[in-house]
Design a protein that fits this description.
By secondary structure, this protein is α/β, with parallel strands linked by helices. It is built from 25 helices and 19 strands. The chain is globular and about 85 Å long. The mean pLDDT is 97. The structure holds nicotinamide-adenine-dinucleotide.
């Protein structure tokens, strides 16, 4: 046996234990280990069946992404799975944790599948630009109806054990020890001669009459990613074929997609995310343990931060400025709980437990034992000064003081306090309990272990931390500023907001820049530009935003911004008034309007991001191009399947 797999005997059942922590990825070593395990028991007459499981934490959670950039090497998974399928002694799988991708394909090749409650089962290959490549599509087509197979494979979303049981994809949910239950179930099946049929048997489900509609919905959900559409078309093409022919087609497509741009880009995003928040000078610096988190300001951001901290296990104290503001903050927290309860993401018992760790007060003294305090009050230096002066008085001298400021100078905030070394920026994105990006802003004087602790805190919250230095807008909002300027410059030269938004939608952003501005409201940018006027790259002043706001158009909040909004509508319609304002501005500036192709718009918009990103890297504000990619993907809707603006440039 190899170190990646071993055999343990339980009476007449051989348990093949895969051991490749942390997630038992199906590396070459694991596949060789499985082959060796099968070889060892195939002719052992004392063995009547085999149970495949893993050593700890989770079943096989997928392929080994590290091996994806190398040529495929034997043993090949489809052949290994065919051997398991046809093995002279029935093979069962004991499932728990994550059973994903190749892990689920391995399970499907076993005759009997028993899962622990809470197991997550799925085929997420499209999320790394692939399709299931080791019989998964063909086995699924032979077990569930066509539309369900499409949903599971093209969404890549895992299902619960209960759903898998309902669909017949597993045979039993274990009530206790899943390994023992699987052994018992296999012994019974062997004794009663009732081993379930192979999942490769039977005919595949055929698409129904709605195949066109289904394709349209897959395309819409894919937002420009190609793998889900490839998977869909493969399912349509192979459903009428034999299992063997279907598997052949599946493998061809898988091998072709492995080296595609999209697969490389998604692997890059994945790897960058794993390395997020590292900095050479922080290596070996231990993060502190935190238990009590204070949040100043129970507004939009403060409540989101408090909620995320509660769900991650911290005791949280929210401090508001007045009783009236406190009531509003309570209402916001209640709404966050109600939304989680309403969607079934949280149970009543869990909500009660979370609330027992939440305090809401107007008394700053309640922060006396807080380990970390995050300020999320109004974006005004005067208000922040009052808050940090107070925090200096009431907090422990070693407590970490963080600001969620978007644009203010973090070093100036730090200097308000007696010890600027304990001040850091922890910049969340809205909605803070959902958006994954957190910029950890390292001030000139921030202590290293405080940066390391802020990174660890963000990770604990399930976020993607990116360390940035101090500059206006840090990494993300600074790039956003130039991205927007590029769009506005094209408006001035003849494009329309809808041309630009459509191009960026096509590229893969969920919303174009003008629709996003309408959603967020135009007034904050308008106010900022009073002090800091926008300029085109060649220095000419840009004032289209000002013209739109001066015409009384504030965004969705008053049903007119760059677009017109019907009452209650979230999607805008092109606005004649905006078109007239643009025409007037061009005429006044002597600009002859021209048209822009989709490709030119994309090139200019992404080019503006790249240009600013290069400056940020040169200035040392961010450590690497990968950090920029993470910021744009996790904070600004940049399509992950494009890898980020700096991928392969
Ligand atoms: P908000 O207006 O929704 O909330 C601010 C809250 O602070 C209010 O509830 C207010 O009552 C409270 N407050 C004001 N003075 C206080 C004091 N002295 N003590 C205690 N509480 C006080 O604002 P927001 O959108 O949550 O933004 C808060 C901070 O987060 C700002 O610095 C902002 O730039 C930053 N930010 C906002 C976003 C966003 O999208 N809204 C994103 C990232 C960062």
């Amino acid at each position: 046996m190899t170190s990646a797999a071993r055999i343990e005997k339980h009476g007449s059942i051989a348990v093949l234990v895969i051991d490749n922590p942390p997630v038992h990825a199906l590396s070459t070593a694991v596949k060789l280990g499985i082959v060796a395990g099968l070889d060892a028991v195939e002719h052992d007459s004392s063995v009547t069946g085999v149970v495949i499981t893993t050593a700890s934490k989770t079943f096989v959670a997928g392929a080994d992404l590290k091996e994806m950039d190398r040529p495929l090497e034997p043993p090949f998974l489809p052949e290994l799975l065919a051997r398991i399928d046809a093995f002279p002694k029935p093979v069962a799988a004991a499932l728990y944790g994550n059973v994903l991708g190749g892990g689920f394909e391995l399970a499907l090749a076993c005759r009997l599948r028993v899962a622990a409650p809470g197991t997550k089962i799925g085929l997420p290959e499209v999320k790394v630009g692939l399709i299931p490549g080791s019989t998964g599509t063909q086995r699924l087509l032979r077990r569930v109806d066509f539309n369900t197979a499409v949903d599971v494979i093209t969404s890549g979303k895992p299902m619960s054990a209960a759903r898998a049981l309902e669909l017949g994809l597993i045979h039993q949910i274990s009530s206790g020890d899943v390994r023992a239950d699987t052994i018992a179930a296999l012994e019974r099946a062997v004794a009663e001669n009732k081993v379930p049929a192979s999942s490769a048997s039977g005919v595949a489900a055929l698409p129904g009459a709605d195949v066109g509609t289904l394709e349209a919905s897959v395309k819409k959900a894919a937002r420009g990613a190609l793998a889900p559409l490839h998977a869909f078309r493969l399912l349509v093409e192979t459903a009428p074929l034999s299992y063997e022919d279907g598997c052949k087609k599946e493998r061809e497509l898988f091998v072709q997609l492995r080296s595609s741009f999209e697969a490389r880009a998604l692997r890059h995003s994945f790897a960058a995310e794993r390395n997020a928040g590292r900095a050479p000078d922080l290596a070996g610096i231990a993060a502190r343990n935190l238990s009590h988190v204070g949040v100043i300001g129970g507004g939009l951001m403060g409540c989101g931060i408090a909620f995320a901290s509660l769900t991650s296990g911290y005791a949280v104290t929210v401090v508001e400025g007045s009783d009236a503001a406190m009531d509003a903050a309570r209402g916001r927290m209640d709404a966050l709980f109600a939304s989680s309860l309403g969607s079934g993401r949280m149970t009543e018992a869990k909500a009660t437990e979370l609330r027992s760790r939440l305090a809401m007060t107007t008394d700053y003294a309640k922060l006396g034992d807080a380990d970390l305090v995050i300020e999320a009050v109004f974006e005004s230096m005067d208000v922040k000064r009052a808050v940090f002066t107070k925090l200096d008085e009431v907090t422990r001298p070693d407590a970490i003081l963080a600001s969620n400021t978007s644009y203010l100078d973090l070093d100036a905030i730090a200097d308000i306090t007696k010890n600027p070394a304990r001040v850091v920026g922890i910049h969340f994105f809205s909605p803070a309990h959902i958006m994954r990006l957190v910029e950890v802003v390292r001030g000139a004087k921030t202590q290293k272990d405080i940066v390391a602790t802020s990174v660890a805190f963000a990770r604990k919250l399930g976020k993607v931390p990116v360390i940035t230095g101090v500059c206006e807008g840090f990494c993300g909002n600074r790039i956003l500023k130039y991205y927007r300027i590029a769009g506005e410059a094209m408006l001035e030269d003849g494009a329309s907001p809808q041309d630009i938004d459509a191009a960026m939608n096509f590229y893969g952003f969920p919303m174009g820049p003008f629709a996003v501005q309408d959603l967020a409201g135009l007034e904050i940018a308008y106010a900022n530009r009073k002090n800091n006027p926008a300029k085109r790259p060649d220095g000419r002043p840009l004032d289209l935003l000002e013209r739109v706001v001066d015409a009384g158009r504030k965004g969705q909040k008053n049903a007119k911004g760059w677009y017109d909004y019907a009452p209650g509508a979230r999607r805008g319609e092109p606005s004649d008034e905006v078109m007239a304002l643009l025409a007037q501005a061009r005429a006044e500036k002597g600009i002859t309007p021209r048209s822009f192709s989709r490709d030119e718009i994309i090139e200019k918009m992404i080019g503006a991001m790249r240009n600013e990103a290069r400056k940020l890297i040169a200035e040392g504000i961010v450590g690497s191009p990968d950090d920029v990619d993470l910021v744009l993907i996790h904070g600004y809707g940049f399509p992950a399947h494009k890898g980020g603006p700096m991928f392969e440039v």
